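batch job 7 of whatever, protein = DUF6506 family protein
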Amino acid sequence: MALQNWAFIYTAPGSPSEGTVSIVETPACRTVLVGVPDVESGVRIAPRLVAEGAQLIELCGGFGPMGTARVLSVIQHAVPVGSVAYGPESVDGVHAIFAPGA
């Protein structure tokens, strides 16, 4: 089965708790992008994405391993869940963006 429908949940401070949803569609694939204010909101939204047909869910790095595990648990491992991670070559750049006072 080809990937035809997937979702990406990312933390976006200031988003409503139900998420800010953007959909990108091509003739072959539907991508649902959901900005949430915090990890807990993303955990609550994940089951809805599965119910709407997402074949997999990707999470931004802000979810970390614990948030990723919570999403997998709440959807009962119905679809694969992955998370973005930055390698050591990017640590300085990420720190510059997210460090207090940046």
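notes: The helical segments are 39-51, 64-74, 91-98.
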